[in-house]
Amino acid sequence: MKHAIAQELNLGAPSRFRYSICTLVNKPDEYSAMLESFVHAGFDPAFCEYLYIDNSAGTKADAFAGYNAFLNAAQGEYIILCHQDILLNQDRIEQLDACIREMDQVEPSWALLGNAGGVGVGEIVSRLTDPSGSHDTGPFPIKVRSLDENFILAKRSANLCLSQDLSGFHLYGTDLCLVADILGRTAWVINFNLHHKSRGKLDASFFELCTSLMSKYKRVYQGGYIQTTLTVLSVSRSECAYRRALFRQLQMLRKQGQRPGSMLEVEKELTSLLGKRRYVWHWLCYKATRPLENLRSSVAKRLRRFQRGSPPGSPTAQPATRTTSRRAGL
Q: Of the candidates 196, 227, 246, which is a domain's last residue?
């Protein structure tokens, strides 16, 4: 069938690049070190494109707007959304390629891969190195409901985007996972170790985004919680579930010790939303159920350790390294 003014779409057309590495930059020196580490780890510019948005002289784009621009413009088969403060001085491109091949066998509908995320309330999995040490809660891959933003790989063919009605520099990894879930796609933590120079940052804008994200998604989801690497979010229409998430955020905030004025204002607002009596009630419930949560998390970790006996030569058959269970705010 031929038409003079129409062209048939080639569904099997190859991508121009294997990987697109996309970064928001406000510290050019740190970004240069990141670029050098990628090239040294095998991400050759011959088959990888490097895209950035320069925020060094002021914010041209926040994470939601910036990464949406990357997802729209990138021409790689796989789009890596990453922080400027990571270094690929652990695993190389061969390991990432092996993880992708494994995921294509395990779950062909996968859309997102990362190195840290939340499975359920109180259960966080990770495979990375940061200032607190080496984190390895495998065996991998592990299906998650949220991903940490330091390193996220998106399959371009999944056609993902971030919410247009959210903004800022936090929780966009969680938002991306929720969008993927709505589209029938999945997110996973894989066995790809890199060095992240920081452990995450909590500020007033983080808690403001928590509220915005929960308000948005409880209109979409009928119920449930999302465990991120930093906090617990409610996506339920249940007021009880919403208050429980507020309690977890307030509790995490109070564990930070000395806080600037903006954080104290956030604490005051969260306390007002929850109410002092409800805080006491949730605190008692937390104390009563915490041992059970710890036991469940411990059993899950032990089961993963038991499953480490992967067949020789498989991508998950890696020697165990020291496990550190805490990330920022946890």
A: 196
Q: What is the pTM of this model?
A: 0.75
Contact 122, 323 (CB under 8 A): no
Question: Are 72 and 177 in contact, with CB atoms under 8 Å apart?
Answer: no
CA distance 154 to 114: 9
Q: Which long-range contacts (CB under 8 A, 24 or more apart) does 53-59 make?
A: 53/23, 53/24, 53/25, 54/25, 54/28, 55/24, 55/25, 55/26, 56/25, 56/26, 56/27, 56/28
Question: Is residue 95 within 8 Å of 314, Cβ to Cβ?
Answer: no
Q: Tokens 């990894």 correspond to what residue?
A: 173
Strand (E) or helix (H) holding 126: strand 123-130
With bands split at pLDDT 50, 70 and 90, how would you rate the model's confidence at 1? Answer: low
Task: Tell me: do 129 and 227 sit in the same domain.
Answer: no
For helices 172-182 and 63-73, the axis angle rounded to 10 degrees is 50
User: Which letter does DSSP use for residue 117 in this model?
Assistant: E
Residue 157 lies in a domain: yes
130/212 same-domain check:
no
pLDDT of residue 236: 66
If asked whether residues 266 and 219 sit together in one domain, one would say yes
| Token pair belonging to 194 | 């890199």
Task: Report residue 299's pLDDT band, with 50, 70 and 90 as the boundaries.
Answer: confident
**For residues 187-210, average pLDDT:** 91
